[in-house]
Design goal:
- By secondary structure, the protein is mainly α.
- It has a single domain (8-79), classed as Rossmann fold (3-Layer(aba) Sandwich), CATH 3.40.50.720.
- The chain is 48% helix and 5% strand.
- It is built from three helices and two strands; from the N terminus they run H-E-H-H-E.
- It has helices at residues 8-27, 43-48, 59-71; strands spanning 36-37, 78-79.
- Strands 1-2 form a two-stranded parallel sheet.
- It is flat, with a radius of gyration of 14 Å.
Length: 81
Amino acid sequence: MKVIVIGAGGTLVNSGLEGFVRNAAAELPRGLRINVVSPGWVSETLEGLGMDASDGTPAAVVAAAYVKALEGTAQGETIVP
């Protein structure tokens, strides 16, 4: 996992989302589902910023994770592509 200096705010938000999803999943009625996708840096974004894209996850892989979150059976999970 890549650590970013002055990234504490982002870490706080991401941890909050993961905790919310985990707990909200247990409270949803009628078989509704909720998940969160946590891709980290996307390769194409890093490339656009002039950074080393090899540290990121390709956009196609991130997109597949979103499809899994929507169409799969996961419930209350953090999906990390």
